[in-house]
Amino acid sequence: MKITDVRWTPAFIPIEAPLRYAFGSHPGFSRIVIEVETDEGIIGLGECYSGASRIGQLQEMKPLLIGEDPFKLERIRWKLAAPTALKLFGHVLGFAGLEFALLDIQGKALGRPVCDLIGGAVRDEVPFSAYLFYRYPNTQGAGEVSNTEQMVQFATDLVKRYGFESIKYKNGVFPPDEEIETFIALRKAFPRHRIRLDPNAAWSVTTAIRVARRLHDYDVEYLEDPVWGFRAMERVNAKAPWITLASNMSIFAFEDLAPAVMSNVLDVVLLDPHWYGGIHRAKLAGQICEAMGVDVGMHSGAEFGISQMAMIHLAAALPNLTLAPDSHYHHLTDDIIEGGKLQYRNGKMAVPTTPGLGVSLDRDKLAKYSELAKRQEMGSWIEDPKHPGVITHQPKW
Ligand SMILES: [Mg+2]
Question: Fewer CB atoms inside 10 A, N or C side of the chain?
Fold first, then answer.
């Protein structure tokens, strides 16, 4: 089998209400949908982060992929995304989206789900966390989350609607004292849920240590990237050793894993099949964590259904995934896959048993949302629409 064509379509899907985080706001989710075609008529689906730089990556990689056998993943990795090239030129996100499509092709050709190509599923369903964000009101004036009461109500609604058993509280938006109070209110409202928090490295080391002290008795599942950088994380761990530290930002590359563990920088690695260069590479990173005795969870970066499935297949085949993956998926109002949005049952999504990733494109939806993508200004999410021109410094507090 040979690859004959590679196509991509940027798309933008609206969300229930704009999500706020430490540096700005997401008005909706922008992604690039990738299709890789073969001479046997099989089309593989992939998905990656949006933006002109990712489109540039795909443009550069396309001619290198044409004529290759989609089963020869290692050859393709060294041709398109060798470690030196990744470090110097950063093709990792575009490459990951292509890798999903190649695995989709392999699964379709063999009649097996993608998880069977990476060791096989050890679980039938994957639990996800309720991803809580502060939100601006939407265009109908609904959905605002700006204080403790609204955040607890938002969590209550999500848990009731989807059945989540763990909760992620995205903070770093309001001053830490306010967010500490909100965490404590969530803990009281959900005494049996696991609750994690993630200020996206918006705090200084001293602020992070103060927050860790204040939350000492409130059963934090983990504190994700309180500060920016390897050494800063190490200092938080040294001064607040009781708090479980997780990272997808300060530590996220293969080269970081061993030094981070040897230096007691973190307890939980949040894998991501996009950031680790594909499903295969993320599985390998997970197994390195297994060997080093580090717990594994999963980061989410505002995925559509294709990437959501990539995460589900990876999670299905990672025995040491003990922490529910994060997912932005429940914020979406729609999806570009046939059959509409993927469904949660008791806070979990089923691992597909159909060939490949287990999703197909709804071409009408893709056309509709690619039109919306043309109207979106790139990079808008790193600014706050309520405070145009203001760029957030780090640490923020
Ligand atoms: Mg994070």
Answer: N
